[in-house]
């Protein structure tokens, strides 16, 4: 099994370079906000380990909101972020990136501070500017881009063949049908038209670290539990007080801002989402935020790693990142369906989880005991999340047209090819997926 | 708790409560305001029907709704206009991103609409006239009175024709409707109601009341200290010193949908090898109901025929779509889902469900229906054409279709969501790249994958796929309107003259 990892290269944009950078990034697109996979600067489509990538220029559009807390906004310089979700480790991927796209990367990064031009050590700079997320979510840990493409091809091929043969063989004759399909797959593999690469062995080092993390975090929490319980009580009361006194910001996003965001949406079956905002002032808020993300990351790694994040089955990758010395937070996700349906999921399916996390962000609707209300204040929530959303300059998805549900189905179809079903009901189930 | 009689039905336009089904003759007029003063004079005495019941039932009715440009033309202040939702202000065709979301691309694109397709074409006023058979002309004369012809310019009369209680393809129409919980007796708290219910909080349909989130939908509120005319308006329940311009009003979504009746039946006839039973079976699978309206669900209550379920069923017993295909039109339009994938028995089970455990991979893919309901009030147009005549090669050609109307409190969460996430979504409930077999456009995905097919799951195993579906329904026009309460109409008609024509 090949585990996934992510990178986020971040650097402030040099004064006066913003306009040029916008134009340069836009030149990578063939639709608003959507990368041409073969663009000359960074041909994303050539990297067979890359799931998603995006360039965002992070601007603090909502920086003034913190004034409602009596705090002066910290200065923020527009910052370029290059994000990717990849199979395997970052180091080797960076080397691949440099091999294929060094001039393009240099051209982009030359708009940033601390990048000194042609003679810059690109790898060193990228690594130095990479920041880690506090929590990451991967829809299916171990599912590689290669696997996704191979399984999609398998499904397409089987689907066409099944339509042709079902009536000849007889729809009720499921065993004969399965036999036909299996022989067909063998033949297609033999002819080189289908490939089903077996999974790579799991890197032992990753396995070890993952195991340590899985046991270590609960162990530490358990050891600290007497202390944590006391702290939790104090925190709960303090948070409840803050909830009652924090200002509620009911600010409607401008139509210009909305138009800038929606022009990038609903072109493929999936969309991207980038939001950026301030952490509420005070150490209680920050520590709560950090703790919730620690738990989120734990759950994402060890429990929600096979197709669903609580009740949500539409998120491919997501990450939560602290920036500006923990004063600000950035969230990015890649999800299926429209923005409105994503928000519907947020409110109706995982409102509690969202509240738990973002109640610590400036502008989030008032919560009660940190899991109640919040997102349920529909207008306030929809306004705030759109207000804090920032456009993504360039977005790349390696498998347009496929949703996370499609990917899971394709894997089940492949499983059915490789492992024989034991009874007719299971064969029927398998056939119904195709 | 309010009693039914306490509800302010006298301030509601009647369409919110009645379908006016007995008033079979209708005239839908798209008007522009040419003289705002005269328009307001006309409005002052216009006999707009309220939602009060009458005995004997009325023989005529008149309803009115305005586009944002219409409200501006009458002199509504921009600060009030800004209280409306963005969808209403920008308009149905005013933003390419919205059109993409609604599936108004390709042959549905606004550039090709007969009306409403670009900013200059958006009508100011929608006037809906209803009368019993033969009574329309007299009613039109009555309502027009002295000022009408100088106040308004008729842009277009939308065709309507009563062909019985069916839509042009031949299926019974408007069976699935929410029942508005006027008395607000049902809790909107998900802890008390996690299953599908057809009762709907009034705020989902009428502005100024609590919606299914227990919240008040944003709407224009006016400070009466700054605007003395606002004193005629009802107060805002949630923001008391303010007056509520939206209260007892609703958004009206209108779309003219052309239906290719011969095209539909001839395609099915060909796919069904000209066998009538097979043809009707496939049609029923696509619609999700039989030609007599019977829903395609297993008969699960002994002694009650499936026909009698009418609007009283869910798809809980048919999760895979073996009875009613997942992609069928009525299943997409109202999937009848509750807040949780299946009923929770006890707090532990509830927690497990909330955390997403114990589910099949293809389960729980649809949003809860109660946040996405539409009150439909459409009318058909074009001559009736029975399926058996429609399959003839020389079936009479005519413009047929539906003037689709729905009333909602939140256009983006209700109408646009249903259109986008359910009807036009090629992945609805995990279906494989297919859109609504009836309503959908047939545009391929960005990846080039085709969407012009329809899958019927089959308990025997492999799905049955119908390929190369032509497009049966085409959008010819549309717009977002606001249908005010009667006191809000009074406010509009009393707007001072010097405000008229305020720049937009």
Produce the secondary structure layout.
The complex is a heterodimer of chains A (434) and B (504).
Chain A lengths: L3 E9 L5 H9 L2 E3 L2 E2 L14 E9 L20 E9 L2 H20 L12 H7 L6 E4 L6 H25 L4 H17 L13 H20 L1 H21 L9 H8 L7 E9 L4 H20 L12 E9 L4 E9 L2 H10 L2 H8 L8 E2 L3 E2 L4 H11 L3 E6 L6 H15 L5 H10 L1
Antiparallel strand pairs in A: 1-5, 2-3, 4-5, 4-12, 6-8, 7-9, 8-9, 10-11
Chain B lengths: L24 E9 L2 H10 L14 E7 L1 H6 L4 H4 L4 H5 L5 H7 L22 E7 L4 H9 L3 H4 E7 L20 E2 L18 E2 L20 E2 L20 E2 L5 E10 L1 H11 L4 H12 L41 H5 L12 H9 L20 E2 L2 E3 L5 H4 L10 E8 L3 H12 L30 E5 L2 E6 L6 E11 L2 H8 L11
Parallel strand pairs in B: 5-6
Antiparallel strand pairs in B: 1-3, 1-4, 2-3, 7-8, 9-12, 9-15, 10-12, 11-12, 13-14
Helix pairs in contact in B: 1-14, 8-9
Any overview of this molecule?
By secondary structure, chain A is an alpha+beta fold. Chain A has two domains: 4-121 and 128-142 and 202-397, no CATH class; 145-198 and 403-433, no CATH class. Helices cover 46% and strands 17% of the residues of chain A. Chain A has helices spanning 18-26, 90-109, 122-128, 145-169, 174-190, 204-223, 225-245, 255-262, 283-302, 339-348, 351-358, 378-388, 404-418, 424-433; strands spanning 4-12, 29-31, 34-35, 50-58, 79-87, 135-138, 270-278, 315-323, 328-336, 367-368, 372-373, 392-397. Chain A has a four-stranded antiparallel β-sheet. In chain A, strands 6-8-9-7 form a four-stranded antiparallel β-sheet. In chain A, β10 and β11 (372-373) form a beta hairpin. By secondary structure, chain B is α+β, with helices and mostly antiparallel strands. Chain B has two domains: 4-255 and 478-499, no CATH class; 262-371 and 427-472, no CATH class. Helix content of chain B is 21%, strand content 16%. Chain B has helices at 36-45, 68-73, 78-81, 86-90, 96-102, 136-144, 148-151, 261-271, 276-287, 329-333, 346-354, 387-390, 412-423, 486-493; strands at residues 25-33, 60-66, 125-131, 152-158, 179-180, 199-200, 221-222, 243-244, 250-259, 375-376, 379-381, 401-408, 454-458, 461-466, 473-483. In chain B, the strands form five sheets. In chain B, strands 9, 10, 11, 12 and 15 form a five-stranded antiparallel β-sheet that branches. Chain B has a four-stranded antiparallel β-sheet with strand order 2-3-1-4. In chain B, α1 (36-45) packs antiparallel against α14 and α8 (261-271) packs across α9.
